[in-house]
Every structure is written in C-alpha cells, then in structure tokens.
Design goal:
This protein has twelve helices and twelve strands. 40% of the residues lie in helices and 20% in strands. By secondary structure, it is of the alpha/beta class. Bound molecules: nicotinamide-adenine-dinucleotide. Residues 14, 18, 74-77, 90, 93, 261-262, 283, 286-292, 298-299, 302, 338, 340 line the site of nicotinamide-adenine-dinucleotide.
Length: 367
C-alpha cells in the first residue's frame, strides 16, 4: 500500500512555528516507527495572498482534494485586517471546509491532569475529563437562505434562516455514532426541539439513526440545558452531537473547561474517499497569535495533538496516536511549560522548539 499523504498548510503568524515542531514529529514516526507519510506543503491565508493575491490558490485547493489529509496551522493577522472581505485570510479556510464538504467538526475537550488547575472549574469537576463534541459544520443558520438585512416598513430587519435537511442531520449523526462506538458508547444529541421545528426534525432523525447503533446509549438534551450541564458536571458526557450554531458555542465553552487555547486540537471530516479514508482537515483551534508570533513563544501542543487526530482518524494509526498523546501528557506531567501554561511559582517557560524537543524525547522514551 502506498504511504498516506498529508498536505501541510502552515499559514500565518505562529502557524509556521508550531508546524515546524509537527514536521519534526512526522519525521520521527518515519524514522522510528516506519510510518512514512508523504508530506507536501503549500500556502494558505495571508501567506497565499502575499504570493498569489488570493487566500487559497486553485492549485492548492486541488492538492487538498487529493491529499489523504490536510493539516493547517493558522491564518490571519493585522497586516490583512483591512483587506476586502472576499480575500481575507479566513476565506481560504472557509473555502477548504466548503469545497471539501467537511460536515463533521470534531472538537475534543480533554483535561490533562497536569493542567487541571487551569480550568475555571474546580479540579475535581474536570480532572480526567474527556468529551468529544461533534458539530455539524456545513449547514444550519450560518448558511440557510433567506439571509440578509432588508427594509421592512420604516426600519431594517436582519434575517438568518436555520435550515436542515434530513440527510444533513443524518450524515453528521452517523459520524457521531461511529465515534461513540470507538469511545464510551454514549451519545447526547443537543437541539432546541421545544421551540424550533429544525430541532424536532433533528431529534427524529438522530433517534432513527440510533437503531443502527444499538450498543450506543442515546440521550437528548435541550442545548441551553447542555450549556448548563457542561459547566455543572461536564464528566457526564462522552460524545455530544449538535448543530452548527449551538456547536460553535458549546464547543468553545467545553474547550475552556480544559484551560489554554494552546492545547486544543480539532478535526473536520467529510464523506469517505475512494480509498475509504474520510476527507479531512486537522487544525489547532487557536489563531495566528500575532502578539507572540516570531518570538518562539507559541505552544505547539494544539497542532501536535491535531496531527495525533490525523493519525487516528485518517491514517488508522490509533496506537501511534495514543503514543503521541501520551508523550504530550508526560511532558506536561514533567512540568514542561510554554508561556501560556505558566502559573505563579513556575520556573522559566520553554520555547516552541524546546517543547518540541521534550515531546520528541518522550516519544523516544516510549519505545
Ligand atoms: P488567537 O487564537 O490567535 O490568540 C488569542 C490569544 O491566545 C493570544 O493572546 C495568543 O497569544 C494566545 N495563543 C493562541 N494560540 C497560542 C499558542 N499556540 N501558544 C501560546 N499562546 C497562544 O486569536 P485572536 O488573537 O483573536 O486572533 C488573531 C488572528 O488569528 C486574527 O487574524 C484572527 O482572525 C485569526 N484567527 C484564525 C483562526 C484560524 O486560523 N483557525 C482562528 C482564530 C483566529
């Protein structure tokens, strides 16, 4: 079988810095685990705008469609803030998500024991936390028509439309059930069926799909209650499946249970390709962090953990993904900290590349 292929789009700001550490880790897997990945690289965001006048060149889009997975760093920065909306760096990211039809956004909220003090919640509420939020990413109120700002009588009205087809709800639900099967086999679906017809349909479709996954325990919750439960007793959840808007908010809420932005990975998955692998893009949740870029201060863990998700979900290398996640966990347990993870009393922070060194040393120690 041919090697899996990965298109790296490092992007702007700290994107190339954190990606530099991931590239060292990819090489480590090639050399030490015989897991050779064919890596290619291209531009996205402001970097692509500088080179081509667009935030994503058509050739790059075509490469993304062909790769087994895409790993993206971050896009954006003050230099591009005044660009026309159509060529803003974020448009490159949105184009990738849209044209690859990445409908299931996976946002893990996992609390590393060594960082449980970072949560705004009490340690006992978050220690050992391991939730996966699956957010529908390509439909719902962010895309529904009609939309716009219209004149109505003597005032204006802003309109957005929440719209979901059964098939859109179903494909995301299947992705969520499949994930639940690989985890603790519990799925909580969140909507507002009490006040929204789209929520009633959502609940019906998810319930119907559940018949194909009899081992998974399905529950339903109104999304507002879901938000309360996430901060009251987050460990009650395993996988949460919810729509684009609620998912946007709930996944950020869940993320903050775990501490720093520099630790949060994500995956966006689409339909299976001919080789059976899902279309997929992996990216840290954080942005390009212009306030620290170019200074060697960025925490590479979110990008490293995004690559671990690629190992698990695109390359079927779950054991190696576990190895990499355990290496990050060990480094944190040993007290290695980039600036964003420092607390009163901690000694000097390590640099981006020193964090990479520590993860590589932990990987070596795992052999
Ligand atoms: P940000 O995530 O870039 O930064 C927020 C804060 O977190 C900053 O103080 C930053 O220094 C810190 N931070 C973020 N990642 C870090 C890391 N890995 N290590 C250490 N500290 C880290 O969000 P922002 O400041 O609101 O946005 C900056 C730029 O990034 C904007 O142009 C925005 O549009 C863009 N952005 C891009 C993405 C993306 O590429 N997916 C996501 C969010 C924001």
């Amino acid at each position: 079988m041919s090697n899996p292929s990965l298109l790296i789009l490092a992007g702007d700001g700290i994107g190339p810095e954190v990606m530099g550490e991931v590239k060292r880790i990819i090489n480590w897997f090639g050399e030490k685990r015989d897991l050779v990945i064919d890596v290619s690289e291209d531009l996205v965001g402001g970097a692509a705008y500088d080179a081509h006048g667009v935030p994503l060149h058509d050739d790059t889009m075509a490469k993304a469609q062909e790769a087994d997975a895409v790993l993206l760093g971050a896009v954006g920065g003050p230099a591009y803030d005044d660009l026309d909306f159509s060529v803003k760096p974020e448009r490159g990211l949105l184009r990738l998500r849209k044209e690859m039809d990445l409908f299931a956004n996976l946002r893990p909220a996992q609390c590393f024991d060594a960082l449980s003090d970072f949560s705004s919640l009490k340690t006992e509420l978050v220690s050992g936390l391991d939730i996966m939020i699956v957010r529908e990413l390509t439909s719902g109120v962010y895309f529904g028509e009609p939309r716009g700002i219209f004149e109505e009588g003597n005032e204006r009205v802003g309109i957005n439309t929440q719209r979901y087809t059964e098939s859109e709800i179903e494909r995301g639900a299947r992705a969520a059930f499949e994930l639940a099967m690989k985890r603790d086999k519990r799925l909580c679906s969140m909507e507002k069926a009490n006040v929204m017809e789209s929520g009633i349909l959502w609940r019906e479709v998810v319930t119907r799909v559940a018949a194909d996954y009899p081992e998974v325990e399905l529950s339903h919750m109104y999304a507002d209650n879901g938000a309360m439960q996430l901060v009251r007793a987050p460990k009650q959840f395993d996988v949460i499946y919810t729509d684009n808007l609620f998912g946007d908010i709930l996944s950020d809420c869940a993320a903050m249970l775990t501490g720093s932005l520099g630790m949060l990975p994500s995956a966006s998955l689409g339909a299976p390709m001919e080789n059976g692998r899902p279309k997929a893009m992996y990216e840290p949740v954080h942005g390009s962090a212009p306030d620290i870029s170019g200074q060697g201060k960025a925490n590479p863990c979110a990008c490293v953990l995004s690559f671990a998700m690629a190992l698990r979900y695109s390359f079927n290398e779950g054991t190696e993904a576990d190895r990499l996640e355990a290496a990050v966990e060990k480094v944190l347990a040993d007290g290695v900290r980039t600036g964003d993870l420092m607390q009163a009393g901690d000694s000097k922070p390590v640099s981006t590349s020193e964090m990479g060194d520590a993860i590589l040393a932990a990987l070596d120690a795992s052999l």
